[in-house]
Amino acid sequence: MPAAIPTVKDEALAILKGLGVADSAYAASGLDARSPITGETVAVLREDDRASTAAAIGRADEAFKVWRSVPAPRRGELVRLLGEELRAAKADLGRLVTIEAGKITSEGLGEVQEMIDICDFAVGLSRQLYGLTIATERPDHRMMETWHPLGVCGVISAFNFPVAVWSWNAALAFVCGDSVVWKPSEKTPLTALAVAAIFNRAAKRFGEVPAGLLEVIVGGREAGEALVEDARVPIVSATGSTAMGRKVGPKLAERFARAILELGGNNAAIVAPTADLDLALRGIAFAAMGTAGQRCTTLRRLFVHDSVYDALVPRLAKVYATVSIGDPRTAGTLVGPLIDKAAFDGMEKALAEVTALGATVHGGGRREIGGADAWYAAPALVEMPSQAGPMLHETFAPILYVVRYTDFDDALALHNAVGAGLSSSIFTLDLREAERFVSVAGSDCGIANVNIGPSGAEIGGAFGGEKETGGGREAGSDAWKAYMRRATNTINYGTTLPLAQGVTFDVDASAEKLRPTHPIVI
Ligand code: NAD
């Protein structure tokens, strides 16, 4: 008998109304916004088509032409106000993330906290958009870099971080002087509408925000394609599967637009002989089962040294057997639902395939919770004879594959022998192993950690990965540079015109006749 769970629809609609989402967002037919907690449809939304997407891009383009001339620290003030509004709305928006993406309460709230954090970061950044002054070989000249706003920034986001990914891009784009057109996942449009309403509150308080500075496109792949193909959008930050990136990347390259690709991961950890096993156990449990295995940084592959395998893996299997699975709104739940049936089917298929390869599967299978169209799965710990089959690819579900190793170099080679290159970690107290792991000859990922799991990044660092993860970077460090265009300026404040590299090109100014004194080679 499925456990009874109260309806999520009324609560979600009340939150959306409270945050100021207009009735015009809803329609009799259009995009179904559902909650994975119960599988019920929460609302039907008006969907954008090519024409309305083009119109939104047009408005954003106009807004850019105004916004780019607002001084950057003043632009930062808008983001500061956005951070304030997010603080005020944290409980409601966090709850909506839980309802729409199925994240447990602390993770729903944590996602909003991440938005607040990146706003704080961007406010500081708004006074630090500086370029270099570079020594010039010419007398009485100055050479410098100037950073200018770029244009309309397209943001395509995935369901599993329905709002934080937008903020990583948008907070930076706004202080950099860009406007933003956001195409959220078709699986999580409600949280996007809520964020747009929160943004509007900040914009109202700011006072002079040009209409169109933030546009939200409601729709699926076609709406994303319209954004990717529009020549008025010079930069697109696209977060989602590697399959999506394979379509989007070439289209952007074809029209020389900038791409920030944040794609799938197949993240691994190594547990070495000296590892603190208690620490490793906790780190692995969160990284592998947190967010029901639906993080891009979720731990999916574990290489355990032979000498500690029997001390760790049976304990891990016990944790898997006892982890609390259920309604993500309930205190004590650690694993909520998968986003939909397709996710559950993908997990079942991968488990069937590895079983055929001789793996031992602990856990897995459906839990009857929440209703016919709610897809709760028991996380699976899979002891593999070797790295093979589905282990080589991301299955976006809570499956952790474990392989024994004896030689550190072999473990490193296995670690790097997959297409994705997002996040990685090692548990070791051996300084040499730790340093080798983060060295040029170690992990080939964009994120490499020591004695913490691969999941749960902070906004201060640049986030992203290599290889099939797409190579993009967003959030902290100098990721802001992608949202601006760099101009190198050389200024002559003298009365002569010396040329670089010793080239001479003397012109008889009075005769207005060009008279090169040396042959010029170009
Ligand atoms: P998805 O690829 O199905 O969809 C992501 C977004 O891309 C959606 O908004 C979708 O409408 C859009 N889209 C799909 N095809 C498109 C196309 N041809 N043109 C334009 N837009 C298109 O991904 P998902 O299921 O929502 O999210 C899960 C995936 O995202 C996983 O692979 C996960 O690893 C990845 N992810 C990566 C990061 C990262 O930072 N690297 C972060 C979160 C999620």
Q: Mind explaining what this structure looks like?
A:
Helix 6 links the parallel strand 6 (179-183) and strand 7. The mean pLDDT is 96. 38% of the residues lie in helices and 21% in strands. The protein has 2 domains: 10-262 and 478-483, 3-Layer(aba) Sandwich (Aldehyde Dehydrogenase, Chain A, domain 1); 267-458, Aldehyde Dehydrogenase, Chain A, domain 2 (3-Layer(aba) Sandwich), CATH 3.40.309.10. Helix 3 (72-101) packs antiparallel against helix 4 and helix 3 packs antiparallel against helix 5 (164-176). Strands 12-15-16-11-10-18-19 form a 7-stranded mixed β-sheet, with helices on both faces. Strands 7-6-5-8-9 form a 5-stranded parallel β-sheet, sandwiched between helices. Strands 3-4-23 form a 3-stranded antiparallel β-sheet, with no helix packed on it. It contains 13 helices and 25 strands. The site of nicotinamide-adenine-dinucleotide has 29 residues, from helix 7 and helix 8. Nicotinamide-adenine-dinucleotide binds next to helix 7 and helix 8.
CATH superfamily of the largest domain: Aldehyde Dehydrogenase, Chain A, domain 1
Strand pairing plus helix content: what structural class? Answer: alpha/beta
- Percentage of residues assigned to helices: 25-40%
Principal-axes geometry comes out as globular
Mean pLDDT: 96
Strand content: 15-25%
CATH class of the largest domain, please?
A: Alpha Beta
- Numbering strands along the chain, what is their spatial order in the largest sheet? 12-15-16-11-10-18-19
Organism: Chelatococcus asaccharovorans
Protein name: aldehyde dehydrogenase (NAD(+))
Keywords: NAD, Oxidoreductase
InterPro entries: Ald_DH/histidinol_DH, Ald_DH_C, Ald_DH_CS_GLU, Ald_DH_N, Aldehyde_DH_dom, ALDH7A1-like
